[in-house]
Structures are given as structure tokens and as C-alpha cells.
Amino acid sequence: MLLKLAWLNIWRNKRRTIITATSVFFAVLLAIIFRSLTDGVYDNMIHNVVSYSSGYLQIHQKGYWDEQSIDNTFEEDNQLYEELLKNPKVTHIMPRLETFALASYSEKTKGVLVLGIDPDKEKEVNNLHEKIVAGEYIEGINDNAVVLGEGLASQLKLKVNDTLVLLGQGYHASSAAAKFRVKGLVKLGAIELNNNVVYMPLQQSQAMHGAENRLTSVSVMLDKASNLEDLKHTLLKSIDADKYEVMSWKEMMPEMDQFIEADSTGHYIIIGVLYFIISFGLFGTLLMMVFERKHELGILIAIGMKKRLLALVLLLESIMISLIGCFTGVIAGILFIKWFTIHPIHLTGDLKQVYEDYGIESIIYLSSHEKIFIVQTLIVLILSILLAFYPGYKVMKLKPVEAINS
Amino acid sequence: MAQTIIDAHNVSKTFNPKTVPVHAVQNVHVHIEEGEFVALVGPSGSGKSTLLNMMGGLDEPTAGSVIIDGVEITELSENKLIDFRLHNIGFVFQSFNLIPVLTAKENVGFVLQLQHMPKAEREKRVLTLLEEVGLEDKINSKPGELSGGQQQRVAVARALASKPKIILADEPTANLDSKSAANLLDIMAKLNKEEKITFLFSTHDQRVIKKARRVITLVDGKVASDVQQIPS
């Protein structure tokens, strides 16, 4: 009865209801597009960064992250690989041996990050081979050659086919020294990485460090970034937790997580202002609905309707108007995002250059994570409930005689 | 012997007591017995609507008490009073009595829904009531599709829905033409006679006054006369 009454009441003044619902519609649609766009950009940025560096998740020997030494490596474990790959949320795994060394060429010497990688696996994930700007990409895990960041090569004044000498600490305090032909140069978006990295086939790196079959980490790539925490917890249960530690990119790169958090705060403020503005429209409509029906509300109280039921009818009216706008806004948002998922925005001109310089794909993908729609619906629902409080309070204070005579 | 159904005992109502006091009703004693058909008359501002509202529990007296069917309604909490009205008193107001978005059937059934009456029983009762007021062919009409007289008849049907012992009507014929007013009064008189429902009208409509068996006249918030008469 109350639902029917509320539904019929909101259509008494069709124009006003449509205008109010339309304002909610546009607020929800804009908020969805805005969140979808920013989340899409963040997801793309995270994917690009983690695929070159940590992966979404990384598995180390327990204690490695606190003391990042080659002595805290672990032996390659096929059982671990199988355990990881059988999880449907895991798309790729990348075994790595990550060390630091001094790199020398001619009279120049520089501290570098030496990444022992499986070139084929890396290729699948981050298209490293497509970043080659001179020479060629390393082939296979035992190719006796290295690929350098373009920035590092420039600092060492080194070209393709020159010989790079690496000197570092090996496994169990042995010395690690070797020379390698520079097979190619890669241009990486992350400047830090571009100026410091040496990519080397995994077996060569293991041999150089006297750490045969040993790894510092296995990086894990996911089907969806949003599965990060779920997968982390699953892995912590499925692998030997006494032997390994599982860390997410957020723990390994807290500065990037904090940047996204800080940037998001600004977006939340913009969306907050948007909702604040439409709240006034909705509030005005609700107040009008009370004041113009005061006589009728008085009659209803007189014939035996409890005030709290009347306040509930008003609350339902508020929720109904809001949800009409909200649901149509969500549907329009889904259609909008669907369209741009099929036809992503390809950046052009200077913006494209900026993205590519930072090693980020110059395509804007819109995020279609269900959280975006759920959050907007919840915000509108909560707003409509909060806004109905004051009109509800007015009803609770209504004196039947005064209301009937109004 | 008929029982006292309404006992307004030494009732007073003062508006704006702290600023410019207006004594709308002063020390009024009125006893109305079950089955009476009473007109409360008097010039504008005499306090008849205020007294009627206090007798219906819509307004609180400044002093005195109102007892309806043995229950002192002036002592009831707001929620209990609303419940009491729902089950014991029917109201008919001057105009705009009905919920405009509901049909005649739904308007009458509304009170029964508030009483949680099962649907089948409710529908049966609503149809009976609308037949009683001669609107069986208008059950699905909304108030906007009914004439003023028809709307007041729906309001009477709604007032009767909860089988109250009393119906209070505040100027029910004020906005009606002669034919509609006569028709409405005939229905009320018939209900009074056949179902022993007590009717109390606040009115200055001569058509209502002539139908009443008892006329209480208020002047300046006090009972000036209280006479029995033979209705015409």
C-alpha cells in the first residue's frame, strides 16, 4: 500500500519528478564516466608499470624483501609454478633474478640493476622486444648477451655490439664478474629503470652469480587488477607460507599507490560537489511535496495513519525519484562504457607522445568494474535517505488541525 | 437507556496563551449519547470547529477532558490517539477529503488497510459501503473525476469503513449544491437511524440544522443553548 501510494504520489507533478530524476541521471552518468575514465587510466598505468617491474604480485623467499640479498634467493620450483598457473586469475608468471652490480664500459662505471629474465615470458607480458630502439632483443634464457636501458647506454657512452663488464656480489659471497655483448637498447617509460637497467637471460645471470637455478622472485600477472587482494590471500594459503612471502605491487611500490590515492581524492571532491548540487534539487522537491500536501497529510493523520508511516511514504518517494534517475544513469553509463570498450580512445599528437615517453600505452581504456556502478547507486540511495530526514521530521511535527486548515 | 458516547468535561481552548490569548472555547460541558444526530452551530469564530476537533482528538484542550466511549482521549499518547481515531471515529471534512491519486474504492479501503484487514474481506466491505452511499458505479473513479457531492459521499463511506460509533463532520455540506447536500444528509440520517451511528456536525448550514435532532449553539466559545428538536 505504502509503495503504491509513494509511486502514485511522485507522478502527481510529472514535470517536477522528471526534472529531479533527470538531474540525478546526469550526476550519476557523469560520475560513472569520470570514475570509469580515471580508474581506466590508473589501471592502464599500473599494468604498464608492474609489467616492467614487479608484476602485480611477487613471490620471494621469506625475508627477501627486508634484506634484498642474493643470499636470500630460492631454488626454482616447478611445483610452485604449477600451483600458480593452475589459478585461473593468474595469466603469466615471470621468474627473475634481480641483483645490483657495477657496470663498466671504457672509462665509465655505474651502479646498475641487473635483471635476469626469461626473455620469452617477459615478451608475452610487457612487449619488451617492441621497446628496442637499437640492436635486437635477447633470444632465449641462455643467450650470452644483454639489453640495456637507453639512458644507461647513453651515460656509459656505449653502443650496440660493445662489450659491457659487470662486477658484483655472487651467491654466498662469491664474486660475480662477466662481460657481455650489448645486443640491444630499450627505451623504457620509467626513467629510473631506463637509466639503470640491464636485462640479461636468466641462465646467464644465474651462472654469473654462481646461483644456478636460483631466483629472487617470481612475478605474477593477473587477469584483472581488482583480483589483487583476493589472489594474494589465495596464494598465501596455497603455497608454502613458511618458505615464501607474497607481496602486492602496493606493498612494493607504495609511492605509486599513494600517488593514485592522492589523485583520487581530488576526483572524489569533484564528484562530491556534483552530488552536493543535485542534493539541493532533490531536497527542494521533497520539501515541496510536503508543503503542497500539508492538508492531505493532516487528513491522513486524522483518519488514523501514523506519522511514521507518512514519513516512510516520503522516504519511499525520495528513494523512488532518486533511483529512477540512478538506474537510468547506470544504464546509460554501461552503454557509454561498452561503446568505448569496443572503441577505445586513441590519443594523438603531443599527448600520445607524453604517454609513450612514460612507457604507457597511448590508449585510454574505460574501466567497467562493477564497483563503479554499485558505489554510485549506493551514494544516491544514501543521499535520498538522508535528504528525506528533514521532510520526515516536518511530518512528525505536523499538528493535524493546523495541517488540515492549511 | 442510551449511553454517553462523548463527554466533553469543562473543556477550554486558548490560542496564543503567552502572547495575545484567544479563548476559542471556554469551560464547555457537552454530553452526547449514543445514536444522537447533533448539530453544533454558531457564528464564525464561535468555537464550534475547535470544539469538534477536540472531541475528535485532533486538537488538545488547554483545560478539561474529553471522554469517548469510556476512554479519556486527552490522556492518550499521540500514537495511541491516532490508533483510537482509526478504530473509533470517522471524519468528514469540508472539502479535499480524499487522496487524489487513489480511486474511490482505494480511498475507502485505505482505512481498512491501516487496520490490516485481509484483502478479500476488505474489498467486500468497500463495495458494500460504496453501495450504501450510492456510488457502486464509481468505484474506480479518482476524486478528480467525481463531483463535490460524490466526493463527500466517498468520504462518508471512508468514515464508515472502520465501523465507528461516532462520525464527526466539519461543515460537510459547505461546498455542495442543494441536491448534493440533501442527498448526503439523507445518507447520514439513514445511517444514524439504521446503524445507530452517532453524528456530530459543526455547521451553519440550515439544511443540516433542520435534519438534526439536537442543536447545540456556541457563542464566543460558550454553550449558549442546547435544544432537542424534531427534524424536518
Automatic annotation (TrEMBL), chain A:
<feature type="domain" description="ABC3 transporter permease C-terminal">
    <location>
        <begin position="269"/>
        <end position="400"/>
    </location>
</feature>
<feature type="domain" description="MacB-like periplasmic core">
    <location>
        <begin position="17"/>
        <end position="232"/>
    </location>
</feature>
<dbReference type="Pfam" id="PF12704">
    <property type="entry name" value="MacB_PCD"/>
</dbReference>
<keyword id="KW-0812">Transmembrane</keyword>
<dbReference type="InterPro" id="IPR003838">
    <property type="entry name" value="ABC3_permease_C"/>
</dbReference>
<keyword id="KW-1003">Cell membrane</keyword>
<feature type="transmembrane region" description="Helical">
    <location>
        <begin position="312"/>
        <end position="337"/>
    </location>
</feature>
<comment type="similarity">
    <text>Belongs to the ABC-4 integral membrane protein family. LolC/E subfamily.</text>
</comment>
<keyword id="KW-1133">Transmembrane helix</keyword>
<protein>
    <submittedName>
        <fullName>ABC transporter permease</fullName>
    </submittedName>
</protein>
<feature type="transmembrane region" description="Helical">
    <location>
        <begin position="268"/>
        <end position="291"/>
    </location>
</feature>
<dbReference type="InterPro" id="IPR025857">
    <property type="entry name" value="MacB_PCD"/>
</dbReference>
<keyword id="KW-0472">Membrane</keyword>
<dbReference type="Pfam" id="PF02687">
    <property type="entry name" value="FtsX"/>
</dbReference>
<dbReference type="InterPro" id="IPR051447">
    <property type="entry name" value="Lipoprotein-release_system"/>
</dbReference>
<feature type="transmembrane region" description="Helical">
    <location>
        <begin position="372"/>
        <end position="390"/>
    </location>
</feature>
TrEMBL record, chain B:
<dbReference type="InterPro" id="IPR027417">
    <property type="entry name" value="P-loop_NTPase"/>
</dbReference>
<dbReference type="InterPro" id="IPR003593">
    <property type="entry name" value="AAA+_ATPase"/>
</dbReference>
<keyword id="KW-0813">Transport</keyword>
<dbReference type="InterPro" id="IPR017871">
    <property type="entry name" value="ABC_transporter-like_CS"/>
</dbReference>
<feature type="domain" description="ABC transporter">
    <location>
        <begin position="6"/>
        <end position="232"/>
    </location>
</feature>
<keyword id="KW-0067">ATP-binding</keyword>
<dbReference type="InterPro" id="IPR003439">
    <property type="entry name" value="ABC_transporter-like_ATP-bd"/>
</dbReference>
<dbReference type="GO" id="GO:0005524">
    <property type="term" value="F:ATP binding"/>
</dbReference>
<dbReference type="InterPro" id="IPR015854">
    <property type="entry name" value="ABC_transpr_LolD-like"/>
</dbReference>
<protein>
    <submittedName>
        <fullName>ABC transporter ATP-binding protein</fullName>
    </submittedName>
</protein>
<dbReference type="Pfam" id="PF00005">
    <property type="entry name" value="ABC_tran"/>
</dbReference>
<keyword id="KW-0547">Nucleotide-binding</keyword>
<dbReference type="InterPro" id="IPR017911">
    <property type="entry name" value="MacB-like_ATP-bd"/>
</dbReference>
